[in-house]
Amino acid sequence: xxQTLDRYVIKELAPPFGLxxxxxxxxxxxxxxxxxAELIVSKGLPFPxxxxxxxxxxxxxxxxxxPMALLVAILLVTGRMAGDLEVVALKxxxxxxxxxxxxxxxxxxxxxxxxxxxxxxxxxxxxxxVAQHLFRMLQARVAAGISERVFNTTFGRITIYVEExxxxxVGLRGVLVSDERDRKVWRIxxxxxxxxxADEEKRRATLRLIDGTVGESDVGDPTRYRxxxxxxxxxxxxxxxxxIGASRDEKPEKAMSLGQLxxxxxxxxxxxxxxxxxxxxxxxxxxxxxxxxVFAAIGFCLGxxxxxxxxxxxxxxxxxxxxAYYFLLTRLEGIALNRRxxxxxxxxxxxxxxxxxxxxxLRATLSxxxxxxxxxxxxxxxxxSRAGSREARAQGGRWGRSRGRRESTHILDRYLLRExxxxxxxxxxxxxxxxxxxxxxxxxxxFIRIKPPLSYILEHVLYRLPxxxxxxxxxxxxxxxxxxxxxxxxxxxxxALKxxxVSLYRVSFPILLVAAGISLSGVVFQETLLPxxxxxxxxxxxxxxxxxxxxxxxxRTQIWFRSSNTRFFHMDLLSPVSEELYGVTILDxxxxxxxxxxxxxxxxxxxxxxWRFEDGIFREFDxxxxxxxxxxxxxxxxxxxxxxxxxxLQRPPDTMSFLELREYLAKLQESGHRVxxxxxxxxxxxxxxxxxxxxxxxxxxxxxxxxxxxxMIGIGVAxxxxxxxxxxxxxxxALGKVDLLPPLVAAWSANVVFAGLGLFFFLRxxx
Length: 767
Description:
Strand order of the largest sheet: 1-2-3-4-5-6
Shape: globular
Strand content: 15-25%
Number of strands: 12
Helix content: 55-70%
Structural class: alpha+beta
Radius of gyration: 31 Å
Oligomer: single chain
Largest sheet: 6 strands, antiparallel
């Protein structure tokens, strides 16, 4: 069935396809990998369970990345064949473009069938298993949902604050629990110690509290209050909420089979309810696999016609096609969910338009300029060979004989930098397109649900792109360095330089110097422009897309705030504009987490003289019993806490410079908050810019080790190095968050490890 040409093309397609699948899947899963690494390290969850969860998430992502990787692979292979004149040779030998398209079509059919299997069968079953698997994870370690010195809301209407969690993740010290499951009674429980118990048979978790008090107040009448001391107190924790940090698809249609989807559509139709999400999901599962065939036709035609553009043009073209396809799919899906157009129209329109474009391109390719004669082919190859010889002689003359050593090294530096910046420019362009595609896929469901205007989505992309590029720049530098030294090795330029007395260290010097300059520029960019860009991007997402107020003006409900080691605030409503608090409760506790006093007020107004409380009750407790009870209509109390302490939400660290974050952490420390994880991020702001030099250093010897493997091997090496770095970095940061590593060590671990590896292999490389 498969002839020599078919086997050759399929063999050429397999490596770039596999690398593209790995690359796209890695970028889509990178956030999940960090979350799962933290679950393993900081929450003590067994590695096999977390690995199973990751494997369950893969089918849904692969159904997206397989068609994307197919397009990239076809464009790369056809672009290389066109650039190496293999397409011209095949035409001269009588092979038509349609015959050449056949092996690409075979490969695309196989990918489409695999995508269909994942989309129609595997992914729904995997999504069904995710919820069950999360329960098993939570059952294995109930404390995975509880962090130290954080108001944990993992268990629904139960808020749990714990001063310390033991290494075993079972023992707790200093516990405050707010139980609002009963709509009529609000319970606040404080205890010196606690235990977390899991009952596998009864499928429940129990929080056992030791030596504490229970305060019960009527929701509608705060004057009715009951205070009880206890030695032992058990409360069941619900399992109806997902584990924090682990992903869960909240859409029920994602876990349904095709039959269940159709049954839901029929049932909702009869009830007169909205069935659009189920019908959209049904058509989407069939439409996505067909996208592979559309991409194959478009990629083949664009690739074989890009004689001069090379792989860079092919990659840019592939990402442009992907961006257009998925952007159109996103917009139409949102319109269909709003029941403005039929579901089948929305899901199949991108394929229909793409199929028409592919058919037109294929027709134009088949009816193109006739293939040149064989003599012309040989003449063209001879001209290329002569041109290459003249260039080699000219370079040899510049580097070895006609110029002085100083001038020749300057020429060498300019040549190397020109090539390096060319690869770097290609990488930045490809990276930008890739980040846009990945960001669009990651926010697909959110955009569909909120339905923001197109201009807001473009603003979101504009403000998120600099941060994404800054984070991905080390990988881009890594790939550019690998490409540069692979090219020098394959074209024997490095050998010629060594023969002329130029060592590998001297060749590497300008590249490492540029990487150091990029690191320095990264520090300046990180401290000046990046925080404001991230802040504006956060405002676009928060204000324009979600419709919220700015952070400093945002009204919030059900707020818990810890101002010191002994004082807790709870507010039903906070209004920053009027500087008012409603439904205020202030708790003062001692070192053994026994309640000392409690203040309840309907309203609190911030004034220059202090806090003015209205319609409140002050209670004092002595020997575990209610002591003084002082009701008041109005009272002004001086407290160290000001309004800005409540309105200033925790700013994301990426919106602050190094100096701002350091000052912010100092304030949190003074208030008794645990800031270890933030210190790891603080030191990371210093450590991260140096990654650019480390990636260049480690890329050089690895590129020299695989001169025969070509650029695909180079890309594979770069991806593996980058993956290794991020895994080491994420594990170290997770260890730093739980104080198993000092924050400084956690932030610098990956840098030290990979700098050591790079320096070791660099010094051992043949100079």
